Amino acid sequence: MYITERYAKQIVADVESVIQKKINLMDEKAMIIASTDVSRIGQFHEGAHKVISEKLDILLVEARNQFTGAQPGINLPIVIEGNIIGVIGITSEKEEDLRLGKIIKKLTEMLVFELYLKEQTDLKQRARNSFVEEWISHGNAQSDKTFGIRGQLIGIDIEKPKRAAVAHFHLIKTDALEIEAFEIQSMRDQVLQLATQLVLATGNGYLTLIGTELVFLINIESARMAEQFLLGIKEQVEKQHPVCFYCGIGRSIGPTSNMHKSYIEARQSMLLAKESQSGIAVYENMTLEYLLNELPLDAKNEYYHRIFDGCSPNEVKEWTAILAQFFANNFSLNLTASALFIHKNTLQYKLNKIARKTGFDPRNARDGVTLYLAILVKHLAVIETDMP
């Protein structure tokens, strides 16, 4: 074990905040790698070298020229699992700081060990992330005889049936909330941490972040149970953070099946959920969508533009949102008006305008289906464009 410069700086800052003393931290080669006096970083500390080479419990430096690179103060070894991995130095000319020095030594060792454990956890998580990314990206990963063994080493059993799920979320922007890049990254980290905790707490699978998307591998064969499980995560995430959370769920696969295929299904479903603002979409439930997706992209776009020919882009955008809610609420005027936060009469006016401009009345069964298909093929066309 050794102390990295990044961790050394964090430790020095933490210790200084507690005792308000000048602190130096030297590595196993007696080089100052962190200090409250940044001008000393990179210098050789002869006193620390003596502590390390002679395995001293403490070294008091009483004069400025006693050791090269050292100032009067207390120097104590940082011992982890019986090995000296560095030295902590406190610049002081007071003998009464000796007892304080021993406390700082213990505090430093605790911080070092805590950071070491965190680093090991991070390494394991990165190994899992890399493994999962390889599994979902390459259809023939299971053909590698060592693949399963590698999975077992990091706690992933590829023999169990699993399904992929892909989630996307974005911050809800309000007039009072101007979103900066660092806020987006911070929120992404918080959501990832929360979702990971929820997944691990149930033992239902694994989770990793690929790009800006959360990728789940869940050990749930039932599509309905998988949907309920991810709905619970969605509700917790949206309850604790100002985000909209969309998720798609692929089909369950067996040990000899292709996880890449389940991932593609999950991502297609997620994009549909995002495009249609429906929250969660399950690939097994995509019956009509599955059929329409076989249409060429040009045919999807042609059908959509034929239905909304002569309508402005702003009108189409508004009407698409209205019709999506109208169809999602089974043609109920009351439920749709409530979902859109408008009066029922206002909704009637807008539906009348749609009927007048397009020639298709959403309240008529046949016309409603025509409009529904137009919206659906548009969603699918967007998805097809976004897919790699």
Overview of this protein structure:
The protein is of the alpha+beta class and 388 residues long. Helix 7 links the parallel strand 9 and strand 10. Helix content is 53%, strand content 15%. The model has no long low-confidence stretch (mean pLDDT 84). Strands 2-1-5-4-3 form a five-stranded antiparallel beta sheet, with helices on both faces. It has a five-stranded mixed beta sheet with strand order 7-8-6-9-10, sandwiched between helices.
Q: What sequence of helices (H) and strands (E) makes up the elements?
A: HEEHEEEHHEHEEHEHEHHHHHH
- Principal-axis shape: elongated
Secondary structure tally: strands: 10
Q: Could you list the spans in which at least 5 consecutive residues all have pLDDT below 50? A: none
- N-to-C CA distance: 42 Å
Major pleated sheet: 5 strands, antiparallel
What percent of residues are in strands? Answer: 15-25%
Cross-sheet strand order for the largest sheet:
2-1-5-4-3
Helical stretch tally: 13
Please give the radius of gyration in angstroms: 30 Å
Rounded average pLDDT = 84
Structure classification: alpha+beta
Tell me roughly what share of residues is in helical segments.
40-55%
